[in-house]
User: Fold this.
Amino acid sequence: MLKVEQVMDIKELRGEGHSVRAISRMTGYSRNTIKRVLEGEHTGSVKQGDRTSKLDAFRAYVRERYEQYQLSAVRLVGEIRPMGYDGSIDTVRRYIRTLRKDVVRAQKLTVRFETPPGKQAQADWAYCGKFATPDGGALSIYAFLIVLGFSRQLFVCFTTSMRMPELLRCHRLAFEFFGGWPAQILYDNMKQVRLSGAKWNEQFLDFANHYGFTPKTCRPYRPRTKGKVERSVEYVKDSFLIGRSFEGLDDLNAQSLHWLNNTANVRVHGTTGQRPCDLFQQEGLTPLSSVPVYNFIDPVKRTVSWESMVRFEGSSYSVPPAFAGQTVSVACDAGQIIVRAGDIIVAEHRKAAQAGQSIVERDHLSDLWKLTEEQTRNPERQKWHVAFTQSVQQAPLSQFDEVVP
Assistant:
């Protein structure tokens, strides 16, 4: 009996315009079976017979472990015996044989799967190893890759981090490189995209909604469904990265851009038999100019000092003294430092020109002096101000790098 996933695969292939004969050749199922699926006679549900098996209670566990790691029957029996299984190893072997057939059929299906122009891209991260730096150290390098499903047009960007700000920045660079984006992008189950189960990363969904593409993730244990980008990872490493030297990250990305334009995207692709740059003309992506650039602000948590200052990227910025001792979030957006307490913006400053500077708003300093004077007159009132009274009550304006009127 066909499973729900297999029925969905058949219907998806039909939706892409493949004939019954072609689907039969791609999946290994008979044409009659495929016709029944397309006519709605086969829903993918499993008919329950009268016979029972000692393995029934453990099938889900065995299936998950086999699909994830291809464990042997001996290993699986050893795992389910403590769980209560008292059947034979032959029963497990017979069940594994059915699972193996499903894996082979799925491989035939996904390897040949093609998408129409402009519909889908596949994206992934790849760890590229540690590279020597001029000072004798080692730098971990990651590659973000995205490949358009129809044309195989490829983009790659090298980074030193896989955090959300870098992921979104790499997407923006890819969209600029392509001049747009497709209707959907396929990922593995990376935490930056999908947290768990049906729970998506809200920040990434906001990014996807801004540009109007649909994010999709692979089914668990089926990373081959994004085989285009996974094969591209190996291609990038073999054709570009191995044996290459670079002076820094900027140099590496400059070399990769030259390689994309002069090698990767102008070669005859082994699967399509055409050059990606030629097929790219048919993609019909959503144009880059259709929406404004997405601005991502990655706030960090800071505690306001008793001098009413917060530290951010090596410099200090003033905050109203009422927030001294409290935790606030600090972020930089287009050269502006923004300090928030909850959802309220409590301070804004121009970003310091260099690390080590102190940027102070005159009103913040004035309020701080008033509080310290009050504390001097009433030493028993609000004792928590004592910690900063002695250090700031005589502070001259000249000690700050910049005082904003």
